């Protein structure tokens, strides 16, 4: 039964991701946004909802809630900076024959610099604060990180530019009348249903994979740092693979880097306020590896080309944490 439920969770996430990418493209057109803001704000924040609910639920549940919450908050950027970037690289390499740019990634470099410029200092601050046992300092840090994300949203919208009106979009799935363009209600309704599918699928996946992990004796720390974020970050990963395959590099990359900017600020601010925010060696290691993965991503995206060594690098960073958790 567990395997069937796991399969069902994947089906929900994949279906939701397909609906969401389609709705987000039309919503971006409706709001006259370029692909950068669509990926960095709308898609990134929307698909970050599943993992953002885990810390709240974990804290309310008591017992080992704080450990799970902190692990989920640190684990999400770690997954984005390693596994998500690995899948973007793999998609560029796998679909190079059908992509007009081959292995070249045509992400907007200003967007890349902005997203990483906000993520890296914010997340590094989160790691440093995790070594400081002072609630007043944590609260000040939380307020600062919220302010940083507000500034990020402002900068992203200011730099957005205009959408490409000549681009041909796939018809909206919820547009049964096939009118062009679909109305706002149809777009929003599809996005809401898509998010509901993504959240339901992610939560079901976490629940069932938790049962499997408990049966084989995996610790709560592994669940919070690796397994839970791996499940809840699936929307970003699947959306980006879909967009890379369709030559929409700005959406694919912005979806991940924008999520990193969000995950490195708002969920961390929540953790600083509602938990003691004391990072042990495993959480600290995950945070440092995430910064390493982000650095590698910034370098490759600035170069504009994905290659095998970079993909191997992200895989090594991800596996390093698993080995450290098992050995340590």
List the keywords:
A middle domain of Talin 1, 328 residues, mainly alpha
Structure in words:
The protein has 328 residues and is mostly helical. The chain has a single domain, classed as NCX, central ion-binding region (A middle domain of Talin 1, Up-down Bundle). The chain is 77% helix and 0% strand. The chain has 13 helices and no strands. α1 runs antiparallel to α2, α4 packs antiparallel against α13 and α5 runs antiparallel to α6. The radius of gyration is 19 Å and the shape is globular.
Concise synopsis of the structure shown:
This protein is an all-alpha fold. Helix content is 77%, strand content 0%. Helix 4 crosses helix 8.
Instruction: Report the sheet-strand fraction.
Output: under 5%
Distance between the termini: 33 Å
Q: Output the CATH topology.
A: A middle domain of Talin 1
Architecture per CATH nomenclature, i.e. the level-2 architecture: Up-down Bundle
Number of domains: 1
Number of helices: 13
Characterize the largest beta sheet: strand count, sense, and whether it forms a barrel: none
- Tell me the series of helices and strands, N- to C-terminal: HHHHHHHHHHHHH
Count of DSSP E strands? Answer: 0
Fourth-level CATH superfamily: NCX, central ion-binding region
CATH class: Mainly Alpha
Q: Which residue ranges are poorly predicted, with pLDDT under 50 across at least 5 consecutive positions?
A: 162-166
């Amino acid at each position: 039964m567990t395997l069937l439920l796991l399969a069902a969770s994947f089906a929900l996430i994949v279906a939701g991701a397909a609906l969401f990418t389609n709705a987000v493209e039309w919503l971006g057109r409706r709001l006259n946004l370029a692909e950068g803001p669509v990926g960095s704000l709308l898609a990134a924040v929307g698909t970050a909802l599943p993992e953002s609910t885990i810390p709240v639920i974990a804290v309310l549940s008591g017992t080992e809630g704080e450990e799970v919450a902190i692990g989920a908050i640190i684990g999400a950027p770690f997954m984005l900076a390693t596994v998500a970037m690995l899948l973007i690289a793999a998609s560029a390499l796998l679909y190079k024959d059908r992509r007009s740019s081959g292995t070249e990634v045509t992400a907007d470099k200003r967007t890349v610099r902005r997203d990483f410029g906000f993520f890296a200092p914010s997340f590094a601050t989160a790691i440093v604060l995790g070594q400081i046992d002072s609630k007043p300092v944590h609260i000040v840090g939380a307020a600062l990180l919220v302010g940083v994300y507000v500034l990020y949203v402002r900068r992203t919208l200011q730099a957005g530019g205009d959408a490409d009106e000549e681009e041909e979009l796939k018809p909206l799935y919820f547009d049964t009348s096939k009118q062009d363009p679909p109305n706002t209600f149809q777009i929003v309704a599809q996005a809401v249903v898509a998010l509901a599918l993504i959240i339901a699928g992610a939560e079901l996946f976490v629940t069932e994979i938790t049962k499997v992990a408990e049966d084989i004796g995996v610790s709560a720390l592994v669940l919070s740092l690796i397994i839970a974020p791996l499940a809840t970050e699936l929307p970003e990963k699947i959306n980006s693979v879909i967009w890379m395959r369709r030559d929409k590099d700005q959406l694919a990359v912005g979806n991940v880097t924008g999520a990193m900017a969000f995950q490195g600020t708002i969920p961390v601010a929540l953790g600083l306020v509602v938990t003691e925010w004391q990072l042990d060696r495993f959480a600290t290691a995950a945070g440092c590896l995430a910064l390493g993965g982000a650095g590698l991503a910034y370098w490759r995206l600035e170069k504009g080309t994905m290659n095998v060594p970079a993909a191997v690098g992200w895989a090594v960073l991800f596996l390093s944490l698993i080995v450290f958790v098992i050995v340590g």
